């Protein structure tokens, strides 16, 4: 994949707690920002319940459609943690105790603490690669282009370092934000022209409310800094012409 | 739909800013909690980019699969706001100026302020029903079982009141949480038994870290209070037996 400049991914959030609204997902944002930085663009996110058939079907669809699939959630020790078994079924692989994982957790826990519940966490698809977990021991795992991570945000974050060498990204996706003191309708036509002149750059417009004031963030995204610079200069031209206040840029 | 007790929905989050990780989605949680309270269970969430074909295909798939579909994002005045036009295509309806919407915004804005950019916000699929927006004027809209809402969380929240009479839910989904001072592996087997004894109740187990201490939240969900009570009592039995500290319940 080394010559590929565009590499994409899907994120599959597995968990009833997100669908019920009880838990606010933050893993999408964490993963997407990190993936951007290593040149992988997230093209789709799905949130699905802890239902085996749904996990199997979603994984099998997404892994064919995207270069990488990252799942979060469902790899703990309880009855509702069915990701590892479901991934085994999706790939038609045996669901078995991972020997390396067993040794790892045997060392991690104090003698007698590595009980049946904890042992469930190293049951995985056969020959899965481990993704090390420096926070709480129990590893994630990788089969082909599918990477299975935990749902707890702090643990997921701590595992990204160990995941990096397993991913081959393209060019990092660069992003530049221009914050303006205006409303979207004032700049809509001018911004459409800039987008039309720069079709391969992604330009987004997002209203914000900050300290009681309205504003608009214009976000320019591309793999090429030079293309971002061209858009930036065209946007600066029209905001000068329209006498719109520039709040800041980054 | 009045005799149906189980009513489901999908949420379709439209927006590159969520996929890039720049913006943290909070609308899923807002909508899911609100929908639970009126007896609608969210079964799937998808986050997709501002790409017409993807919006059209996703809406056409989800609206056949679920009782309701709620979209967020892409109904503003800028070039990247393509939800209304895409929904028109999905339903094979004319994309046109909404007369009632026009009158609404004409009154909302000061004379001369209702410019071309703002007028774009009342271009919709023909005969769409308006969803009123008490915060910022520009309405959302409804076609058949698809409801299109804005992406800005505070505006979306303000529109739920006006949306309620358009939705017929089933029985509200009740939820009960038991917070324990333990780790998941200590209760995994006992909790599996409770789930096996109560197959039509949804029992989830979620580790938490609070004030430097580990804990587990057990969440019981059902439309029947009596079924929740049975699970609750079975869980209280095993935590008493295991001498696990009960932090609180709600």
Structural features:
6-stranded mixed sheet; alpha/beta; Alpha-Beta Plaits; 30% strand; 9 helices; 12 strands; elongated
Task: Write a concise synopsis of the structure shown.
With about 250 residues, chain A is of the alpha/beta class. The first copy, chain A, is built from 9 helices and 12 strands.
Please state roughly what percent of the residues of chain A sit in beta strands, choosing from under 5%, 5-15%, 15-25%, 25-35%, 35-45% or over 45%.
25-35%
> Greatest chain-chain interface?
A-B, 67 and 67 residues
Please mark out the parts of chain A with pLDDT under 50 across 5 or more consecutive residues, or reply none: none
Biggest sheet descriptor of chain A: 6 strands, mixed
Described by the principal axes of the CA atoms, the overall outline of chain A is elongated
Using DSSP, what is the number of strands of chain A?
A: 12
What do the pLDDT scores of chain A average to?
94
Terminal CA distance of chain A reads: 31 Å
At CATH level 2, the architecture of the largest domain in chain A is 3-Layer(aba) Sandwich
Strand order of the largest sheet of chain A: 2-1-3-8-7-6
Percentage of residues in helical conformation of chain A: 25-40%
What's the SSE pattern of chain A? EHHEHEHEHHEEEEHEHEEHE
CATH fold-level name of the largest domain in chain A: Molybdenum Cofactor Biosythetic Enzyme, Chain A
What would you report as the Rg of chain A, rounded to the nearest angstrom? 22 Å
Secondary-structure-derived class of chain A: alpha/beta
- The oligomeric status of these chains comes to homodimer
User: What's the structural domain tally of chain A?
Assistant: 2
Number of helices of chain A: 9
CATH evolutionary superfamily of the largest domain in chain A: MoaB/Mog-like domain
């Amino acid at each position: 994949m080394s010559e590929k400049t565009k590499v994409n991914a899907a994120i599959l959030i597995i968990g009833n707690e997100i669908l019920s609204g009880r838990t606010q997902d933050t893993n999408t944002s964490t993963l997407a920002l990190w993936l951007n930085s290593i040149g992988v663009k997230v093209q789709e996110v799905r949130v699905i319940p802890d239902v085996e058939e749904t996990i199997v079907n979603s994984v099998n669809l997404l892994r064919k459609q995207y270069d990488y699939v990252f799942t979060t959630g469902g790899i703990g020790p309880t009855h509702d943690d069915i990701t590892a078994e479901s991934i085994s079924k999706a790939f038609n692989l045996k669901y078995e105790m991972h020997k390396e994982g067993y040794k790892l957790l045997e060392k991690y826990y104090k003698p007698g603490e590595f009980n049946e519940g904890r042992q469930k966490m190293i049951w995985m698809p056969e020959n899965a690669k481990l993704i090390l977990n420096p926070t709480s021991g129990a590893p994630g795992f990788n089969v082909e282009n599918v990477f299975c991570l935990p749902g707890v945000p702090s643990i997921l974050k701590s595992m990204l370092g160990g995941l990096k060498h397993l991913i081959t990204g393209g060019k990092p996706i660069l992003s530049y934000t221009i914050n303006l003191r205006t409303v979207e309708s004032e700049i809509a036509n001018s911004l459409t022209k800039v987008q039309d002149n720069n079709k391969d750059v992604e330009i987004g417009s997002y209203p914000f409310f900050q300290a009681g004031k309205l504003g608009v963030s214009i976000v320019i995204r591309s793999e090429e800094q030079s293309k971002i610079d061209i858009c930036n200069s065209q946007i600066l031209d029209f905001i000068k012409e329209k006498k719109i206040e520039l709040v800041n840029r980054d």
